[in-house]
Write a structure and sequence with these properties.
There is one protein chain. By secondary structure, the chain is α/β, with parallel strands linked by helices. 37% of the residues lie in helices and 11% in strands. It is built from 12 helices and 11 strands. β2, α4 and β3 form a beta-alpha-beta unit.
């Protein structure tokens, strides 16, 4: 049988033709398609200002700068995320302060956030792991009582909602990713949802060398910026993807339901929360029962790949990386994040999958795991 990857973007012929149109237009860097994508994204999140960039990482870094985070400040986040979530804190000279994951939701444990707040804390970066939203009511209650900015790492939760309100349509600064493995893609790219036009203008300067251009052809630079402007080639892909996003997410929910229906519960894996109302099901991630297995996770992954099934790992607890160990973090600091990070596997989940593909994956997991149980 054909190899089934853990994810694959759905790019149709209309999108491919639209990219060709952009290439033929002669305007392939930031231009009309980028502005059109920003307008479409703004409409999707209820009219808030949205600006696009080359990655969600760039959006997070610029959000920290807009929020006024400076060297010496502290920013709270969870170690169970892609390294970029903490790297951007270091990039602006601030200090990441980790809070353990909730063992059920696998998101930041909001019960432990307030204990991590100090006089130096300036912001919180929550992460919606696998597209399951962090409790926004509790999050903003904590932030409001302590005067903190919230920079939502919603890289994985485009199209998800909290109590019926679309992620990005409310709150503070919200970053989305359009990486190739996300629920909608622009190849590479991301965006930031902002609060007002002043923040949007500052963001525009930060993403392109701090430059302000004037009608008479002159320009000025009054803030240190970088280079993160999205191309129209990427933007036109994003435009076509955004039109299909809700359908993509609905199909993901259907596939996730099938996983719950066909996954062998007797194997002892811990399945993710069965949220079919708010999550966009960016990933389907069981936790392996490693203590009951005679094989390692790596061996499980290799065996599943031999069965023609792709597997990912999202994510190891980042505080155990060399960079963060050098800052004083150590094994045992955040036991839930470490446990989840050691046992998680990402199984195939993308809109083009057939129902039979889910059954095939579940059967392959059983064939590999059951003989390995002690």
């Amino acid at each position: 049988m054909d190899f089934l990857p853990f994810t694959r973007p759905s790019i149709d012929e209309d999108t491919i033709a639209a990219v060709g149109d952009v290439l033929r237009s002669g305007w392939i860097t930031t231009g009309p398609k980028s502005r059109e994508l920003e307008a479409a994204l703004s409409a999707y999140v209820g009219g808030r200002p949205v600006r696009v960039v080359t990655s969600a990482t760039a959006a997070l870094e610029m959000a920290l700068r807009i929020a006024g985070v400076q060297p010496g400040d502290e920013v709270i986040t969870c170690p169970l995320s892609w390294a970029a979530t903490a790297n951007v804190i270091l990039t602006v000279g601030a200090t990441p302060v980790f809070v353990d994951a909730d063992p059920v939701t696998r998101n930041i444990d909001l019960n432990k956030v307030e204990a991590a707040i100090t006089a130096k804390t300036r912001a919180i970066i929550p992460v919606d792991l696998a597209g399951l939203p962090v409790d926004r009511d509790r999050l903003y209650d904590i932030a409001g009582r302590h005067g903190l900015r919230v920079i939502e790492d919603a890289a994985q939760s485009m199209g998800a909602n909290w109590n019926g309100r679309a992620i990005g349509s409310f709150g503070d600064l919200v970053s989305f990713s359009f990486h190739a493995n996300k629920n909608m893609t622009s190849g590479e790219g991301g965006c930031l949802v902002l609060n007002n036009d002043d923040e949007a203008r500052l963001f525009e300067k930060l993403r392109l060398q701090g430059v302000t251009r004037f009608a008479d052809g002159t320009m000025d630079v009054d803030v240190l910026g970088g280079k993160a402007n999205m191309t129209d080639i990427a933007a036109v892909i994003g435009l076509h993807q955004l039109k299909k996003l809700d359908g993509f997410n609905e199909r993901r929910r259907e596939l996730a339901r099938l996983y719950f229906e066909h996954f062998d519960k007797s194997l002892g894996c811990e399945l993710p929360p069965a949220d079919f109302e708010q999550s966009n099901w960016h990933m389907f991630q069981p936790l392996l029962p490693l203590a009951k297995m005679s094989i390692s996770r790596a061996e499980f992954i290799d065996s599943l790949k031999a069965e023609g099934v792709g597997v990912g790992v999202h994510y190891p607890a980042m505080h155990l990386f060399t960079l963060f160990r050098a800052m004083g973090f150590a094994e045992g600091d955040f036991p839930h994040a470490e446990d989840i990070g050691r046992r998680t596997v990402t199984l195939p989940l993308f809109p083009a999958m057939q129902d039979a593909d889910v059954i095939r994956v579940c059967q392959a997991v059983s064939r590999v795991l059951r003989p390995a149980l002690k």
